[in-house]
Write a structure and sequence with these properties.
Elements: H1 4-19, H2 26-47
Helix pairs in contact: 1-2
């Protein structure tokens, strides 16, 4: 299982990638967006 710090790092990395010009393809953006949301839910559940 990954630590909270590892999950946060990955979440921040995905946010940066979504903002980059290279990730403007709609399907790639959609995939990263769903993955980012899932990581966000994991982080929220850890703090509830």
């Amino acid at each position: 299982m990954r630590t909270e710090a590892e999950i946060r790092d990955q979440y921040e990395y995905l946010c940066e990638q979504l903002e980059s010009e290279e990730m403007r393809h709609d399907r790639v953006r959609m995939l990263f967006t769903h993955y980012r949301r899932a990581l966000g839910w994991v982080l929220e559940e850890e703090h509830i």
